[in-house]
Each structure stands twice: as structure tokens, then as C-alpha cells.
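I am still getting used to C-alpha cells and would like to learn alongside you. Please make up or recall a protein chain and show it to me in full. Would you write everything just below, so we can both look at the same thing?
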Amino acid sequence: MSVEKSVPNVASGNHDNQQDKTADLVRSELEGQFYVNRLRLRFDGALEARYRRYCGLRDRRYIRQLVNILIGLYFLYGIFDWMMLGPLVEPIYKIRYAMGMPGLIAVWFLVHTRKLDLYQDKLVVLGLFWLSVTTLTMVRVVPEEHKGLYLLSELAIIMAGITIGRMRFWPALSSAALFVVSYLLILFPDGTRNTFLLYYLFLSSGAVGLCLLAQYSADRSSRREFLQKLLIHRKNQQLKKLNSRLKDLAEVDPLTGIGNRRSFDQVLDEEWRRARRRGYNLAMLMCDIDYFKSYNDSFGHQQGDLCIKQVAQCMKQMVRRPGDLVARYGGEEFAVILPALDVEEAANIARVICQGVRDLRLPHPMSPVNDHVTISVGVAALVPDERLAAGDLVGFADEALYFAKKSGRNRIQVYRPEMSSNR
């Protein structure tokens, strides 16, 4: 029995592993569509510009702080120059403060220019190049016993700049190439006679190569992270649109485009609670198309649906306050919620709605009250308290509608308490 039960589990596990492999393959193929080369270090078209903007905004503060620290350290290193060289420090100070410092200050201003945020990695390359040139120039003038220390600081600058400068791979490669070129141009004459300098070039090239390998991996990881965020953002946007669509399907009447009964119940409950909490009026209109059954019998259900739609849109145009709601209550009956209006104000809106429907001039030859489509409206308003419920307001407006229809239709009727006893 145990063997028989274990077989499906193994099969299920293999199936899950196969699904994971398939998902990874699909994800890999999907990512590959966004790149222009196999190295995956450049996106296609406008996506690359978007990635650079993303990196510029992400790294702006970090790069500025890095440049601030670099300038501070570069200035303080002059103390160690004096401690090591003593009276021989003058040429080093000329290079450090008359040549190197102005260039770094220029880079500082460029890094703090918002218009150049997209080019921060290039500015880092420029700063590293200038540090490399000035430090190698110092190597040429310092005594022989101190050359190794300055060359070591040069290597530390390049390695740190490539690894912590948050550059993309290609700018990092450019920085490494500029380092080698500047080394050859500035120290090459000495390098041909000095085995140590040749060995240093070999050693530093290997160290910088390892840094570039790390930067290559970091650049790919950064691009993959950016792409994942972008895909997640797009998926979230799609979900928002879908949720909005589902909300419309749940709360909007498909025929008329106004609120449905579910939406009416929710808004009535919210407005009832709010009006009760703040102590203001809540008004309601219950509206019914007069002799709609006769209209349907005369023109058919398709034309009847069109009539309902036109009346609903007319009512929606007449009721425009942000907190108001026009909803289809059922069939040819509509309900209007009017927060913060008393009964007279609500009655005025009801008159405007009735006139608006008459102005549509939809033919209704079977109506005893008018040659065109009309509506009857019941009006009710009250201040909610603990003795009443939201359903009471609906009942009062419905009582008023009943008396409007009983009194001849094509009219409005305001609810009065004696109506409930006379019905």
C-alpha cells in the first residue's frame, strides 16, 4: 500500500520540477527579447534610456556622497605627503592641489547638476581618470623609495572606483582602459627600464580584470532586477485595469451605465452612516416611468430598453453633485440618493428631472397623461437617528411614489407621515 501511494507523489514531484524548468525557460526567453546582444548588457531601444534614468535616480545621492568623501580624502592625503616627503613635498602639492583638486571640484559640480543625472557613471569615469592621471604624475616625481606606495594607492583608487562606483559594465571597462593608457603614457619610459613598474602593470591589469568581472555580474543583476520590476509594474497596471473593470461589472448596470441595485445599497448605507454621524439631511427620490408596460407592448422590448437607457442618462445629467447617486432600482424604476439636501431642495431636483425626461420627447401614444414618455417621482428626506434605518427612507420615498402614481402620474409627490396610514 505504501509503495502504491508513493508513486503518484513522485510523479507529482517530477511534474512540479518540469513546470519549474518550463517557467524558468519561458522567463529566460522573455528576458532575452529585451536585450540587443548575448551579453545582456544593453536593452533594446527606449528601454535602455529608461534603465539609465532609473539608475540615475537610484544612484544620484550615493554618487554625490561618494564624490564628497573622495574629495575630502584627496585633500587630507596631503598630510601624509608631508609626513613622508618632508621638504620634498612641494612638487607633489603642486600636482595634488593645483592640478588634481580643481579637476575634482569640476567633477563635483557636474555630479550635483540634475540635468546630468543620466550621465553619472560617465562622470565617475571622468573622476577616476583624473585621479589616475594626477596620481601617476606624482609617481614620476616622488623619490624611488616611495613610488610603490603611490602606485598602490593608484591601484586602490581604480579597483574601488570600478567596484563601488555603481557604473555599468561598459563605463567600467572604459575606466580600466583609460587607466592602462594613462599608465603607459605617463610611466612607459620608466617602465622599459624598471622591472617593478612592468610587474605592477601586469599585477594591476589582473586585479582590474577581476573587478571588471565582478562589475559585469553586478550590471547583469541590476538589469535583471530592473526588468523584473518593470514586468511586475506592468502586471500590476493590468491588474488595476482588471479590478476597475470588475468593479464596473459589479456596481454598474450594464444596460443604462448608471449604478445598479448593489451599488445603490452600498452607497445608501455609507451615506446613511455619514449623515447620522454628522447630523444632516439625507434625501431620496424614487422614480418610475409612467405606463412603461404599455410602451413595451407598443414598441417592443428592444425599444423599451432604449427608452430606459435614455431616461437613465437624462437623470444622470441632471444630478451632478459629487456625492449624489443615480441608480437603477429595478426594471423601469430608478432611485436617486441626495446627501445634505432637505425635502424642498430634493423636490426642486425632482421637478428638474421630470422636465428633463419630458424634454426628451420620446413618443408614447399609449400614455393617458402625455403623448411622450414621462416619469413619476416620490420625494423623501430626513435626518437619520437611532430610531430609524436606511430602509425607512426607501420606504418613505416609495410611499410618496405610490401616491404620485395614484394621483395621476407625470408628477412629483413629497412624502408626508399620513400617507403611510392612508395607503
Summary: The chain is about 70% helix and 10% strand. The chain has a mean pLDDT of 86. The two ends are 75 Å apart (CA to CA). Strands lie at 282-289, 325-330, 333-339, 375-382, 412-414.
